[in-house]
Design goal:
Blueprint: E1 5-10, H1 17-25, E2 31-36, H2 41-47, H3 58-64, H4 72-89, H5 97-107, H6 122-136, H7 145-155, H8 160-166
Parallel strand pairs: 1-2
Helix pairs in contact: 1-6, 4-6, 6-7
Length: 180
Amino acid sequence: MASKVTVHYFDIPGRAEAIRWIFSYAKGTDWTDHRVLRNQWDSVKEATPFGQVPYAILRYMARQYNLMGSDAWEDAQVDALADYIAGTTYNSAIISWKYKVKLKIMNKANQNFLVGEKLTWVVFLLTVVLDKAVHKKEDLVKPYPLLKAHSAHVHNLKGVKDWREKYPVLEPRKYNYNDK
């Protein structure tokens, strides 16, 4: 891993929040949180590898900080769960019945680890996504006590708790990056 890493993302939690939490959780990590402002986006966009942010890779960081599964089978389960979570929630503005079905499925998983018996990177991703959904509909996880307990566990992890206290999530705002 590079001696110092910079996370480039907008001044919102979004896709970068799980990355920020992993860096905050990892002990001794030297990193910078670069918040891209709307009026900076055009110049920053040209410098990114794919014209978007974030461009740090969660799985790579998980490997660096021992947040992968215990074996290849657990890694596959973590990847499947992460793809399932990210692929259906980041671009969904409305909590639908499909999302509630997914919450029921995830509620059956181990509340602290989701996969296996150790902390993996997917717990950060799930909690960030749940936070976003709960912000839109407060009682969403009420029928899912294991997910509620899972979120509380992740929020209280050393590093994550410190990060959340330092950078509380603000009210979401409309932020159209394509608007000049």
